[in-house]
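> agent: user asked for a holo structure of the chain below bound to nicotinamide-adenine-dinucleotide. Plan: (1) validate sequence alphabet, (2) canonicalize SMILES, (3) run complex prediction with ligand conditioning, (4) return tokens. Step 1... ok. Step 2... ok. Step 3 dispatched.
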Amino acid sequence: MGIALGLVGLGQFGREFVGLFQSHPEVSRMAICDVRADRMAAVARQHGIAECYASLDEMCRTDLDAIAIITQPWLHAEQAMQAMEAGKHVYSAVPTTYGPDGNALLEQCDRLVETVRRTGQIYMLGETTFFRRETMFCRQRAAQGAFGALTYGECEYWHDTDSPTSNLREVWRNRWGDRWSDDKRGCIPMHYPTHATASMVSIMQAHVLSVSALGYRMPGDDWYSEESYWGNPYGNEVALYRMSNGAIVRHCEFRRIGHPERESFRLFGTEASFIGDPSGARWTTRQGWESLDLSGVGEPLPAPLAEDLGGHGGSHAYLVHEFVTACARQRLPRIHVWEAVRYLAPGIVAHQSALRDGEPLPVPDWGDPPMGR
Ligand SMILES: NC(=O)c1ccc[n+]([C@@H]2O[C@H](COP(=O)([O-])OP(=O)(O)OC[C@H]3O[C@@H](n4cnc5c(N)ncnc54)[C@H](O)[C@@H]3O)[C@@H](O)[C@H]2O)c1
């Protein structure tokens, strides 16, 4: 017997996950939900789904076991808590939470962790970088001790605002829908840090202790502005972290950069290093370097998912499998809430540091999961 799962949020990203959840052999019943009836009707027709709900409130009143939340980023945390309070396991798209006020976001992290702890529901963050091949490969190598001691890392998420493949002006206008107004322009790059931080935190098995960060303001910028709802003038932000294992990490979130979109990292150890760059991945030691073919890197997946891994470096199928099997077997998913806040909090505090021209600031940590979770 599999789990009964509902997916809320059938916008640009959420609809990519419907077929994957539906085809998982341990999902026995699939429901969908969107406040936009047109989007729901189209997805219901495409995937032959009869169980449709007009709102998350309605879905929370059903006997579904789990809800995948792929709504606008500023809704995730409150909706996740609502669903867990209603007795549902939760999959949340990244970031864990989002908004202009860093202190309010950290306070939401507190409440989210407390809600998981108190309700005992399963919570997983759908961070795509966790299951990119580069990250899986380096986690394996780190577990084997092949890096020696990890000493330094560089990670980045570059997504130019005017990208021809995913124009951020259009992405944000679409997300706000009829609530769009010109003051909503911009956003805060460092409040979306998880594609970069997930690699460092999950491979090093360490968290960020403190940060010093700087922001770059593009001359005459018409999108990132202090006058906007986000109150942020920086299109690019750079953070330097001290990690709990003693390593140093440099993290770039760039939204003003003449470069194709890129999520990548380099990781340096005392015995070996990993260099991920657009021309290919390399493994280096004192003796020299070798090019890496990462196409065979992966984990076992059930047949329908293994045939089409989905987007973001083939990570979608792994995310679906990790969450469904965690729910079906009542185990802690690898990207549990204590891990999720370790990806997010460094970026939130980095932005606070950047607004204070690099003042070093401590980064809060919520600890490891309690034993037995
Ligand atoms: N690599 C990645 O991990 C990645 C990539 C893209 C997007 N995302 C995340 O995915 C999420 C969705 O992004 P998107 O671009 O698809 O947004 P979107 O605005 O296109 O879709 C969100 C949908 O949620 C629906 N919704 C909102 N509140 C609802 C409610 N209470 N009940 C029912 N439906 C509700 C909206 O009507 C909308 O259709 C974002 O949070 C984003 O951060 C992650």
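> agent: step 4 complete. Summary for user: The pocket of nicotinamide-adenine-dinucleotide is lined by residues 8-14, 33-36, 39, 55-56, 70-73, 75, 93-94, 128, 171, 174-175, 312 (CB under 6 Å). The CA atoms of residues 19 and 194 lie 25 Å apart.
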